[in-house]
Design goal:
This protein folds into three domains: 1-152, no CATH class; 154-235; 240-359, CBS-domain. It has a five-stranded mixed sheet with strand order 1-2-3-4-12. Helix 1 packs across helix 2 and helix 2 (44-75) runs antiparallel to helix 3. It has helices spanning 19-37, 44-75, 101-128, 131-151, 159-172, 175-202, 208-235, 240-243, 257-265, 288-295, 322-328, 349-359, and strands at residues 4-10, 13-18, 80-86, 89-94, 251-252, 273-276, 282-286, 308-309, 315-316, 334-339, 342-348, 379-382. The longest helix has 32 residues, at 44-75. It has 384 residues and is α/β, with parallel strands linked by helices. The protein is globular and about 70 Å long. Strand 1 (4-10) and strand 2 form a beta hairpin.
Length: 384
C-alpha cells in the first residue's frame, strides 16, 4: 500500500490522504486560480481564496461519497477500517460482500447515489447565488453529475461494477461467475470509453485524456479480475488453518508503551502486533505509528491507550476459506488469526501463495495471489 497520512476522523472512521491526492489537489487549485485570474473582476488574493474554497467543496463531495459507503456498511454490521483519498477519487476499506449480495449491492450503490444528490445540491446553490459562487457551484454540479454517472458504469473498478457483481451473484448464487461477468463488463465499458476518447480527440477536445484514462483503467482492472477468478476458485478449497503461520507474541494491554517499543516495535516497526487483555483475549493491535502518537508525549502510558481498535484490525478465523481471507488482508497483506477471541496464528499473502503452490499442481508457472482483486485496495469507492 502506498504511503498515506491520517488527516481527520469522522464517526471513528479515519480519513487518509496520499501523495497522488496532494498532487491532484494542487492541480485543482492551480487550474481554478488560473481561470479566475484571467478575469478582471477578482484580485489575485480573492482568486486564490475562491480556488481553495472550490477545491475544498470538490473533495468534501468525494468524502461524502465514501462516507455514504461507510455508513451503509456499518448499517449492515460490516466493519469500516478507513477512507483513503487517492488522485481525484478515493476508496472505503470495508468488505462490502461480507453479508451477501444484497448488502454488497446497497453498500456499492450508496456512493453514486450520494454524488447524484450532491449534484442537485450544487445546482440549487448555483441557481440561488450569482457571479463567481454561482459559476463555481454550477461547475461542481456538472462534475458531480459526471462522477455519479461514471461510478454507476457496470464494470470494475467503479461502484457500478460491484453493483453488477452483486446482482449477478444474487441471481446465480455463484460469486465467481458474477466476478467474471463484472470483469468483462469493465473491459467492454472501458473499450467504449476508449472509442469515445478517440472521437473526442478527432473533435479537438482536450477531455479525450480523461475518457481515455478511465477506459484504460477499466480495461486493465477487468482483465486482472478475469485472470484471477480461476485462482480464487481454487482457494475456496483451502482454509486459513491450513496456511497460517505461528502468531507473533502478543502485547499485553496493560503494558507500557516504552516496554512495547523495546520488546516488539523496535525490531519490526512496520508490523501490527496483537494486543490482548488479562484473559488473553484479542482487544486490538499496536504498530509503531499508533504507539508514537501517544507515546511521544508520555511513553509510560498503557498500550490500551494507543492501540488500534479491534473493529479496525484485520482478523480472520481458522476455518475461513482462503479466498475470503484474502479480502480481509487487502492493502496490508497480513491478518491476525483469532479463534473465539484468542490469537492462534497469523496469515500473510506469502502463506497463501505457498499453500497454492503446494495444493495446485495445475497452477500456471508464475501465477501470483494478489489480495482483493475485486476492488481498489481495500474497498469500494470513486475512481482514482
Amino acid at each position: 500500500m502506498e504511503r498515506r497520512w491520517k488527516v481527520a476522523s469522522v464517526g471513528g472512521i479515519p480519513i487518509f490522504i496520499t501523495v497522488p491526492w496532494l498532487a491532484f489537489a494542487a492541480l485543482v487549485v492551480w487550474g481554478t486560480y488560473q481561470a479566475l485570474t484571467a478575469t478582471p473582476v477578482l484580485t489575485q488574493r480573492e482568486a486564490l481564496a475562491w480556488s481553495i474554497g472550490n477545491a475544498l467543496l470538490f473533495y468534501a463531495s468525494i468524502v461524502i461519497h465514501e462516507l455514504a459507503h461507510a455508513v451503509t456498511a456499518r448499517g449492515f454490521g460490516v466493519p469500516v477500517r478507513g477512507i483513503t483519498l487517492v488522485f481525484w477519487g478515493g476508496y472505503t476499506e470495508t468488505d462490502a460482500s461480507a453479508r451477501g449480495p444484497l448488502s454488497s449491492f446497497l453498500i456499492s450503490a450508496a456512493g453514486p447515489l450520494s454524488t447524484l444528490v450532491l449534484a442537485g445540491v450544487f445546482y440549487v446553490g448555483a441557481v440561488v447565488t450569482e457571479d463567481i459562487p454561482s459559476e463555481l457551484l454550477s461547475n461542481l454540479a456538472f462534475l458531480s453529475l459526471i462522477f455519479a454517472g461514471l461510478n454507476a458504469l457496470p464494470g470494475f473498478p467503479v461502484d457500478g461494477g460491484r453493483m453488477l457483481l452483486a446482482a449477478v451473484w444474487g441471481a446465480t448464487k455463484d460469486r465467481y461467475t458474477a466476478m467474471n461477468v463484472a470483469g468483462w463488463g469493465g473491459v467492454l465499458v472501458g473499450g467504449a470509453l476508449g472509442l469515445l476518447a478517440l472521437e473526442r480527440l478527432r473533435a479537438g477536445s482536450g477531455d479525450f485524456i480523461f475518457f481515455g484514462f478511465v477506459g484504460w483503467m477499466m480495461i486493465g482492472q477487468g482483465l486482472q479480475v478475469i485472470r484471477q477468478v480461476p485462482v480464487l476458485r481454487q482457494l475456496t478449497g483451502g482454509s486459513v488453518a491450513e496456511a497460517m503461520r505461528p502468531s507473533p507474541d502478543p502485547i499485553a494491554a496493560d503494558a507500557t508503551l516504552i516496554d512495547a517499543l523495546e520488546s516488539h516495535l523496535r525490531s519490526e516497526p512496520d508490523r501490527t502486533f496483537p494486543v490482548v487483555d488479562a484473559s488473553h483475549l484479542l482487544v486490538g493491535g499496536l504498530d509503531f505509528d499508533s504507539a508514537a502518537k501517544v507515546g511521544k508525549a508520555d511513553p509510560t502510558r498503557r498500550v490500551a491507550d494507543a492501540m488500534i481498535p479491534l473493529a479496525r484490525l484485520r482478523t480472520v478465523e481458522p476455518e475461513q476459506p482462503l479466498d475470503r481471507a484474502l479480502e480481509a488482508m487487502a492493502t496490508s497483506g497480513r491478518a491476525i488469526v483469532a479463534d473465539a477471541g484468542r490469537v492462534v496464528g497469523e496469515l500473510t499473502a506469502d502463506d497463501v501463495e505457498r499453500w497454492f503452490r503446494r495444493r495446485s499442481a495445475a497452477g500456471p508457472p508464475g501465477a501470483s495471489i494478489p489480495p482483493r482483486p475485486d476492488a481498489p485496495p481495500g474497498g469500494v469507492g470513486t475512481p482514482g
